[in-house]
Every structure is written in C-alpha cells, then in structure tokens.
Write a structure and sequence with these properties.
By secondary structure, the protein is of the alpha/beta class. Helix content is about 35%, strand content about 25%. The protein has 15 helices and 19 strands. The strands form four sheets. Strands 10, 11, 12, 13, 14, 17, 18 and 19 form an eight-stranded mixed β-sheet that branches. Strand 2, helix 4 and strand 3 (about 90-95) form a beta-alpha-beta unit. Helix 14 (about 425-430) packs across helix 15.
C-alpha cells in the first residue's frame, strides 16, 4: 500500500486499530489555543501543508483578516473532498510535502500542524518548506515532544499505547531533535512552547516557530563580523588566494596591461594588490563592504555592490578574477554576471572549493555537513561538475585542482592578537619577513581542493 493509499483509507475511516487511527477532531478551545500562539507569525500569504479537511486553515481565515491568500495542501483526495463540502470557498491543492507544487519564495508562512510525525522523508519535506518560504518567512509546526520524564513513563507503563504497529505516527521528536534537523535545512528557532502537558510535568506535544534564514544575508553578516575582528592585514602574496602558480601566470599572460579588470568579491584586496604589482592599473574591486585598508592599493577603485549585479556596463571588462566567492552565491547568476561584463575573448579566473570523498574540517553548514566555511551554499564534488558550469558561453583554457592548505601558525597569531588587540602587531603578522615566512608553512586540509578554472568568453 502506498502512502497516498494509506491516507485515503485513513480519511475514509478504513484503518483498523486504536482510536488514534482517525483524523483529529478540532475543538473550539484547541483552535483558539493554536491561533493565539501562532498569530504574530502569520503573513499575508499562507500555506497549510498537510491541511487535512482544512478545519484549522478555515479558522485562521475567520480570525485573522490580514491574510490575503491561503492554500490548503493535502495528499489525500478524500480529505480534500470532505473539506470542499465543509468549506466551499477554500482553495485546496492536492500534493505531497516531498514535492510542494509551488514556486520558490512564494509564502510568508507555512503551517504543518500535527504533520511532521507522519512524514516518511522528513529531510525532503523540510527542504521543500524552506524552498517555498520567502526569506525571513515563518514555518509554524506542532508535533510530538518527549522529555526525559515522559520517555521514562512511556517506557514503563504505556509503550504499547504509543508504539503499536499500525500507529500512523512514524517519527517521534524531542525539542532538541526537531531544532537540530530544522537547523540543518536553513531554519532558526524563534519560538517554542509545550502543546499542553500532563500535570505540568510532561509535554503532550510541542509548538514551534522557525524562521527561514536568508543564507546570502547570513553570509554577508558573517563576513562583515569576521572583517571587524580580523587578525591579519591582507597578505600581499597571491598564493594565499590562488594555489596554482601555473593558472595565475596564464591568466596574467592573457590580459593586456592596459586592460580593465575586476575582482568579484575582492575582500581586503590581496588580488588587486598583486595585479598592481604586475603593472595593471585599470582595476575594480567589487564587494558588499569596503574593508580594504587605507593605502594598501594605489590604483584600484572600490565599487560597493553585489557580485550578482555588479555596477559595471555590459562588455566592459577584459578580465575577471574571483577566488572562493561562487560557493557563497547563486552559481548560475554569478556566471551570467561574469559573462555579461566581459568583452568578447575576455578571460575569467574563478576558483572554488572541491570536496573529496574523504574530507574533514572544523566547520559544519546548516545541514550538518563538514565544510571549509560555514556560509558555503555549495562545495563541488567533482572536476566535471565545476567545469560544466562554464560550458555555455565560455571556452575552458586551463583547469587545476591543487590541495587546499591551512597556515599552521594562524591559531597562534590569532590568540596573540586576541590577547593584545594591537594594531601594530596585526600588521606585523603579514608584513614582517620572518613572520610572513612562518605563515607560509601550510598543511593540507584532508580531502579538500581548490578547484581553479581559466575560461575565455566566446
């Protein structure tokens, strides 16, 4: 029996077993209880995912007049038929939470009331909810909750009642496990409450509100804060940005000295400094925040802006360089922007992170995966995957995959700076010949590579 068939029978009342094997009945008190907890998180466009016959959503529409548009999404056609008879004006949509039939960034609020515990693929469903929510939108849910005391009591006295074989509940959450799995999919917890309790000691369930994190804004905030507390002045050695000497030299050889060149996501200006040292003067650094130290660059012009919409004209550049930026943004839009600003036969050197099969680093992303940088939206898994990004509109001139390395003395330097907060000492770390040499000793990061590609616009 398929999941859909099961819930068709569930709503027809054809499931045998205990009393919980039937759709819940909403009391007026219970509807008000839910509404008062969730009302401040409701936007103008609302989706009730796993809406059943639409009773809860209908109550929201009656109580919350600020809602402009609401949709009841339900897998069971039987439930939808029941709902249409009860609430003929309500908009129902048949579909699964594993493949929500709406475009991305569509809803202000998504509800999943007593739904998560029924889901087979919880990860896919949370990914879909994240996709259809607008940035900053709210995901409101109720589900099971088991604190320590409740688990002990159930284990001793009520095991068969909670875990009989044909229970439609196939997922059981604690506060921690629900927060953890939601965090992995880009949500942060903003509100939590027991959904009633047994004698004030054990939760009957939990009511939670998560907010969709705008990962790009989160990334920008992360870097702005890291620049404010940075340990080092920007290094003047290109090897800290481009690992392959061959691909850097090839990039320089293809550029006219009088050419117009831009660094997408220039950070503190290391690559612009290195280009100036090679005689290039018509340079632009593009980033969302200006953190280039005063006096570090002589000719380059800083342009504050988004790398997905750079403030430069079409076909205006001879060259683009960008190191470790594409993995933080929408890769397609990024490549389209590079293509837009390059002249015909203009060249681009773009680097990113390649993650091998056996990789490890200190950080984890919002999905709990090991990453070199916690704000990475993606880390590429093969050379072909990365090369294929440039197959339309570009000719690949050179591609390299050197090992990513970590400066061994950086933790020591950071500790010293944290204790002293000396600006002179911070500058000394990257200008003193001996200290700079020491920072040049770097160890490979297990399983990680810098994937570096040089392309020419067709």
């Amino acid at each position: 029996m398929s999941i859909k068939s099961y819930y068709e029978n569930y709503w027809k009342g054809d499931i045998s077993g205990k009393s919980t094997d039937k759709p819940p009945e909403w009391s007026s008190d219970n509807l008000n209880w839910h509404y008062h907890f969730f009302k401040k998180y409701m936007g103008k466009k609302v989706l009730d995912a796993g809406a059943g016959d639409g009773t809860f959503l209908n109550f929201l529409l009656d109580k919350h007049k600020e809602i402009d548009e609401a949709v009841a999404l339900e897998l069971s056609e039987e439930a939808i038929e029941i709902g249409k008879k009860k609430f003929p004006k309500m908009e129902f949509k048949q579909g699964s939470l594993e493949n929500i039939p709406f475009s991305e960034n569509c809803f202000d609020t998504v509800f999943a009331i007593e739904v998560l515990e029924h889901l087979l693929d919880i990860d896919q469903c949370l990914s879909e909810i994240y996709r259809v929510l607008k940035p900053g939108g709210f995901f409101c849910a109720t589900t099971t909750d088991f604190n320590l005391l409740k688990k002990v009591v159930i284990a001793i006295f009520f095991w068969n009642r909670f875990f009989y074989p044909n229970n439609p509940h196939i997922r059981f959450f604690t506060k921690k496990t629900l927060i953890d799995i939601s965090k992995k999919h880009g949500f942060k917890l903003v509100d939590y409450k027991w959904n009633r309790s047994y004698f004030g000691l054990m939760p009957k369930g939990q009511m939670v509100v998560f907010q969709k994190i705008d990962l790009v804004s989160h990334s920008q905030t992360y870097f702005a804060e890291s620049y404010d507390t940075r340990t080092f002045y920007p290094p003047d050695d290109v090897k800290f940005s481009v690992y392959s000497t061959k691909i850097w030299e090839e990039f320089l050889d293809t550029l006219p000295v009088e050419g117009e060149i831009a660094d997408f996501g220039c950070g503190e200006g290391t690559l612009l400094y290195c280009l100036e040292e090679k005689g290039f003067k018509n340079l632009y650094g593009i980033d969302f925040i200006d953190v280039v130290p005063d006096g570090f660059l002589k000719h380059a012009k800083f342009l504050k802006g988004d790398v997905l919409g750079v403030p430069l004209e079409d076909k205006s550049l001879d060259g683009v360089v960008s190191t470790m930026v594409i993995e933080h943004v929408d890769e397609r839009k990024f490549i389209e922007e590079v293509h837009r600003v390059l002249k015909k036969d203009g060249v681009a050197l773009i680097t990113s992170v390649l993650k091998g099969k056996f990789s490890w680093y200190f950080y984890k992303n919002s999905k709990g995966e090991t990453v070199v940088e916690p704000t990475h939206l993606k880390e590429y898994r093969s050379v072909k995957e990365y090369e294929d990004l440039f197959k339309d509109g570009f000719e690949v001139l050179l591609l390299r995959k050197p090992t990513l390395k970590y400066p061994l003395v950086d933790p020591v330097y950071r500790l010293v700076f944290k204790l002293t907060r000396s600006e002179k000492l911070r500058k000394l770390f990257t200008t003193n010949i001996i200290l700079k040499k020491l920072r040049g000793f770097r160890i490979p990061i297990p399983g990680y590579y810098s994937i570096e590609i040089l392309v020419r616009k067709k």
